[in-house]
Design brief:
Layout lengths: L9 E10 L2 E5 L4 E5 L12 E8 L5 E4 L11 E9 L3 E5 L6 E4 L16 E8 L5 E5 L2 H6 L12 E10 L2 E5 L5 E5 L12 E9 L5 E4 L4 H18 L3 E2 L7 H8 L3 H13 L3 E4 L2 E4 L3
Helix pairs in contact: 2-4
Length: 287
């Protein structure tokens, strides 16, 4: 088998000879260059060296003794290090050569593509020209590394990266190893593939998977809404033409809140002694 056909794998080769710019390694039939920049140590002729094989920019087989995070068929969480419109995103596999996760394997909507720093669970795939590309893990692969949740995990705060996304929802792999589904109604906006998100478990299924909500808990939501309304009030010098008597559509247009959420937030501000209402207006309470 030609060495190029082993691209994406680790092999053990023998140092055939030294060169000014590295070492030539051999399997007894074919030589491959291990450039000095890719050598993890200094080697002697006849020494056995484990290397990772990959195609260089010209499609020729090259070697590195700096071991990658993964090889073909192995999976790992890989960091996005670059993005290129119309091409895809590049992943760090622990060697100088990053690998491409192509546009065809990414979401249709580019706004939910991974960005630099996001993490995706992927492996190396080798095409017919023996070039290396990334391949995202499928649900069965994620299932193979997952841990089953139990009823005691209900309502628990969780976080982790999004490993799959669709219009109907997003799928999360939590730090605990749970596989979770986030219905579109349980997210304020669609998270990116690979984005780390935080939420809470709102249901534990019989198979040990979970449903997760990214929406704030009611108390947290009230505090966030109250802070937003108070900031708006201050921007108007302490007076605004909105109160719990305002029309729902006016509240929705100005604050993006339902009337019920608005009333809860105003109620908190009044309880905290920050505002008072007169007619259809709300005013900042002087300290």
């Amino acid at each position: 088998m030609a060495l190029l056909e082993l691209a994406g794998q680790k092999v053990t080769l023998e140092v055939a000879r030294k060169a000014a710019y590295g070492y030539f390694l051999t399997d007894g039939e074919e030589d491959v260059l291990l450039h000095s920049n890719e050598a993890a140590a200094e080697y002697e002729e006849g020494e056995k060296v484990e290397v990772f094989l990959y195609p260089d920019a010209h499609g020729r087989v090259a070697a590195t003794s700096k071991m990658p995070t993964i090889t073909a068929g192995e999976y790992a969480w890989l960091k996005v290090v670059d993005t290129k419109a119309g091409v895809g995103v590049f992943l760090d596999i622990g060697i100088q050569k990053d690998i491409l996760l192509g546009e065809e394997d990414l979401p249709v909507h580019k706004e939910i593509w991974p960005t630099v720093g996001d993490m995706v669970y992927a492996t190396i795939r080798v095409n017919r020209q023996y070039r290396l590309y990334a391949k995202l893990a499928t649900d069965p692969v994620i299932q193979s590394i997952s841990t089953k949740a139990t009823r005691k995990d209900f309502n628990k705060n969780v976080q982790g990266p999004i490993y799959r996304t669709a219009k109907v929802g997003s799928w999360i792999y939590t730090l605990e190893g749970f596989r979770g589904f986030i219905h579109e109604s349980q997210r304020a906006e669609e998270p990116r593939l690979g984005q780390k998100v935080e939420g809470r478990i709102i249901d534990v299924k019989e198979d040990g998977t979970v449903n997760v909500s990214l929406l704030a808990r009611k108390q947290d939501a009230v505090e966030e809404d109250a802070a937003s309304i108070y900031d708006y009030l201050l921007s108007r010098n302490g007076a605004m033409p909105y109160s719990d008597k305002s029309m729902p559509e006016d509240i929705q247009e100005r604050f993006g809140l339902s009337k019920g959420a608005f009333k809860r937030a105003i109620g908190k501000l009044m309880k905290d002694g920050k505002v008072y209402q007169e007619g259809t207006w709300t005013y900042k309470k002087e300290e």
